[in-house]
Amino acid sequence: GDVAVLVPAAGAGVRLGPGRPKALRLLAGEPLLVHAVRRLAAAGSVHTIVVAAPAAEVDAVRELLAPVAPVTVVPGGAERQASVAAALAAVPPGPEIVLVHDAARALTPPELVEAVAAAVRAGRHAVIPVLPVVDTIKEVGAEEVVLGTVDRSALRAVQTPQGFRRSVLTAAHAAAGGALTDDAGLVEKQGVPVFCVPGSEYALKITRPFDLALAEHLLANAG
Ligand code: CTP
Ligand code: MG
């Protein structure tokens, strides 16, 4: 395996509602993070996994993941970007391909992990999985007045794992200014081209209660 995966898992999960940090919330009886790490470990290219856990849960997360896969667990930060940076700093020398994958995308298939890694291995500096946008998108101004309709054909919804040549991600994080919601955004700011590969509906980000219910249903019907 030539791939390290950073797993930001330090978020609170405010949009999921009151409860434990989101990565530790249960899906089919197991924490979201366990589902996510199990699928990452099932991807043959993955050599190293570094999890950024809620600071108060580092020991608990170590114990939780020990039977699942060999992982390094570090305390995350207040923003997702800080959590990714903390995990990146803990990657040992070796892997030249680094993926960043949200713990909240708990049902992401190992095949998608391999597809992103393969595109980086083939020479892309930065690779993101995307899906077409299915809804009509409108720009809205003050008092919910529609300003216009956006051309949907040029838009993509972006998932993780996002894959990078290690040096590219390291440089982008070192230069990072304002906080962004994804790592490819930092790389774009460096002027590095970012390429899209087809994403997966199973890589949905569990954000709201509806998403958790959907994920329960998908697992229950997976056979
Ligand atoms: N994340 C993180 N560190 C943070 C914030 C987020 O590692 N300070 C992680 C989350 O654990 C999640 C991923 O980044 O796996 C995507 O973030 P999101 O879906 O927004 O999760 P939360 O921030 O936990 O949710 P919310 O925004 O609803 O509080
Ligand atoms: Mg968040």
TrEMBL record:
Pfam families: IspD. Catalyzes the formation of 4-diphosphocytidyl-2-C-methyl-D-erythritol from CTP and 2-C-methyl-D-erythritol 4-phosphate (MEP). Its EC number is 2.7.7.60. This is 2-C-methyl-D-erythritol 4-phosphate cytidylyltransferase. Keywords: Isoprene biosynthesis, Nucleotidyltransferase, Transferase. Belongs to the IspD/TarI cytidylyltransferase family. IspD subfamily. The record marks R15, K22 as: Transition state stabilizer. Transmembrane segments: none annotated. It comes from Micromonospora costi. One of its GO terms (biological process) is isopentenyl diphosphate biosynthetic process, methylerythritol 4-phosphate pathway. Pathway: Isoprenoid biosynthesis; isopentenyl diphosphate biosynthesis via DXP pathway; isopentenyl diphosphate from 1-deoxy-D-xylulose 5-phosphate: step 2/6. The keyword Transport does not apply. GO terms for molecular function: 2-C-methyl-D-erythritol 4-phosphate cytidylyltransferase activity. The record marks R152, K205 as: Positions MEP for the nucleophilic attack. It catalyses: 2-C-methyl-D-erythritol 4-phosphate + CTP + H(+) = 4-CDP-2-C-methyl-D-erythritol + diphosphate.
